[in-house]
Amino acid sequence: MIPARQPGGMRVVRLDLWIDPAFDACIEREPTLSLEVLPVRDEAITAAGLAGAHAYHVSAAKDEVPARWQVSESLLARCPELLCVSSGGAGYDTVDVAACTRAGVAVVNQAGANAASVAEMTFALLLSLVKRLRESQAALVAGSAATREALMGREIEGRVLGIVGIGEIGRRVARVAAGFGLRVIAYDPLLPPEEIRARGAEPVSFPQLLEQAEVVSLHCPLNDDTRGMIGAEAFAMMRPGALFISTARGGIHDEQALLSALQEGRLAGAGLDVWSQEPPQPGHGLLLRSDVVATYHTGGVTHEGRRKVAHGSASQIMEMLAGRRPPRLLNPEVWPTFLERLGRRQR
């Protein structure tokens, strides 16, 4: 059901994909806003709804949102009233931020809202690998006569954890790692060394991280600088027997290169929550290996994390449409133009 538009009000739209009810509840409590839920599969209704929208909440997962409803230059051209876009996650793969900036559209993400959930998943993957949980359960299910020693795991205390990208999630991972007795190093080209130290890690270069870390964990965004950054060359630089973890985005690491590194015995295992194609095909080589722990990109998908993301997205939309700068603005250079466009709409 699409609620009737409030005369003279600002129109907020989202697709009829699942979202925590906190989003709708927040928007509907604001008397100056009206909310429209647009059907993904009805081209005419959704195109018309977006054409008249002032704010658009869009899922951050590119495989959930049909390409025609992702925020591209062509979609922006069809949405002349659009003032702001909110990505429903820390990532923003479904939003062309540069195109939005050119169009005078402000873009926010929800970085940090599900940071606790993703950081916890990082350690769930790591501990599953070193304790060999997948193999142990498989032996139990099969009724195997394996001895406990045949399924012997390892400890992580005293190991070197290398964090690639020590933002909201990365700093939480560093904090938890200290409790496990891990030594933490980090590479983040966007932060000065003193800030990396303040976040609980010793700053190193990217090659140094690959050479020193016994566990490499990705927490950087997917963009032109990071796409494919962990490929055959990077895997070859890692310590023999290292573990590789990614709860970041598919496409940052080369899946075939990772599979080769595991097949050749250069790496001891991998924990993967993200994939180039989500979900991956059932016969994907990485899924067939006992030294890989795989999940369904559910790192940030917890009841608590989804509620925080929904509330944060609604709050930032309300802030922007009230003319107040939001905390997670991805294109700050657009703000003066945004305010000018908002002012024209309100006159």
From TrEMBL:
Enzyme Commission designation: 1.1.1.310
One term of GO molecular function: S-sulfolactate dehydrogenase activity
Record domain D-isomer specific 2-hydroxyacid dehydrogenase NAD-binding: where: 123-299
Cytoplasm in keyword set: no
Pfam families: 2-Hacid_dh, 2-Hacid_dh_C
InterPro entries linked: D-2-hydroxyacid_DH, D-isomer_2_OHA_DH_cat_dom, D-isomer_DH_NAD-bd, NAD(P)-bd_dom_sf
Boundaries of every D-isomer specific 2-hydroxyacid dehydrogenase catalytic domain copy: 35-331
Lipid biosynthesis recorded as keyword: no
Record's keyword terms, sorted: NAD, Oxidoreductase
Family stated for the protein in its record: Belongs to the D-isomer specific 2-hydroxyacid dehydrogenase family.
Name of the molecule in the record: (S)-sulfolactate dehydrogenase
